[in-house]
Design goal:
339 residues, 10 strands, 45% helix
């Protein structure tokens, strides 16, 4: 039987790629599904089924292979992941020219943010991330590098605020985003002047360990009410573990107006602490460091004004409001993570 002509809107060399795999079939279509800074993704349909084809834009063969080995080992421990398919050489990374590709099974599922999670589901989410951290500790080699995880310097942030303010003011034609950006930059400068003495000291970070590195709603697929797969392990690395838990909560459970759903945060954090054995003091230190990080962070404005990249613009209203709200409700947020 002759396969139908390949329909593709992208550039990956799928015929060459599939020849490296046993029983992968002949290509039928290859449609882009994601495009990010670290990789591009495609839904690749063949005569044998569907796959997720990942083109790694960053990272070398060894670092990508390390991510793959981690997911294979996590799957053996029952963590919901989608390890890549091995090719005929027993490798999970296909290098064609100077490009690295990986072929994963296609996982049917949907993304769910915190507004779509019940309190019970929020509790399961915290337990899942705790399980990821404890299982990574079992399957990964101890990292020999004792790297410092310094918190942002408010002096550097003040200089960045001045630069971004000038770019926002000089933009022509200006729009409502530029007006909001200017307001938030001035507001943040006042907050930093008021709270500069609260910068976390070096060495105050919580315990470090292997973490996913980018745990948020778009990297978790649900099938019904249950997580089906944690995806995109490109930022797998050694970081303060509890900080990943706090950052994830600040993404999952933020409302469009910038407040956190503290009831869900509390359920999530309790489950995380129970799964990992982390003490409340560890979550308190992590929450303080992430709060300070958010107070000094302007990545969305840097993308827009320094790089001309507007993809993250829709996130700015909630993200910028959260930093202000979190500062005002600092004690209540801390209690949610530790209570």
């Amino acid at each position: 039987m002759t396969a139908p002509p390949l329909r593709t809107t992208a550039a990956p060399p799928v015929r060459t790629l599939l020849r490296r795999y046993r029983n992968a079939g002949e290509p039928l279509s290859c449609e882009p599904v994601t495009e990010g800074l670290l990789n591009r993704g495609y839904r690749l349909s063949t005569t044998r089924g569907s796959y997720f084809l990942k083109h790694h834009l960053d990272g070398d063969h060894e670092s990508i292979s390390r991510q793959h080995r981690a997911t294979q080992r996590l799957q053996a421990l029952g963590v919901p992941v989608a390890p890549p398919v091995e090719n005929t050489a027993g490798d999970t990374v296909a290098v064609i020219g100077d490009r690295c590709y990986a072929l994963h099974p296609w996982i049917e599922g949907r993304h769910r943010d915190g507004a779509q999670l019940t309190t019970a589901a929020s509790r399961r989410l915290g337990a899942l991330l705790g399980r990821v951290h404890t299982c990574l500790e079992r399957v990964m080699e101890p990292d020999p590098a004792a790297l410092a995880h310094d918190s942002p310097d408010p002096g550097d942030t003040m200089a960045l605020i001045d630069e971004l303010l000038a770019l926002a003011r000089d933009r022509a034609p200006r729009d409502t985003f530029d007006t909001l950006a200017e307001h938030r930059l001035r507001e943040r400068r006042v907050l930093l002047e008021r709270h500069a003495h609260r910068r976390p000291p070096t060495g105050a970070e919580p315990a470090t360990g292997w973490v996913h590195g980018d745990f948020h709603p778009l990297n978790l697929l649900y099938r019904g009410a249950e997580p089906a797969a944690i995806i995109d392990w490109d930022r797998l690395g050694v970081q303060p573990r509890a900080e990943e838990a706090v950052r994830a909560a600040a993404i999952f459970f933020v409302r469009p107006t910038g407040e956190l759903e503290l009831g869900k945060v509390r359920a999530y954090a309790r489950a995380y602490r129970r799964a990992t054995g982390a003490a409340p003091a560890e979550l308190a230190a992590a929450a303080h460091r992430v709060w300070w990080e958010r107070l000094n962070d302007f990545w969305i404005l840097r993308w827009r004004y320094q790089r001309g990249d507007r993809r993250a613009d829709p996130l700015f209203a909630a993200v910028s409001a959260l930093a202000v709200w979190w500062t005002r409700e600092y004690e209540a947020v801390g209690a949610a993570f530790t209570g």
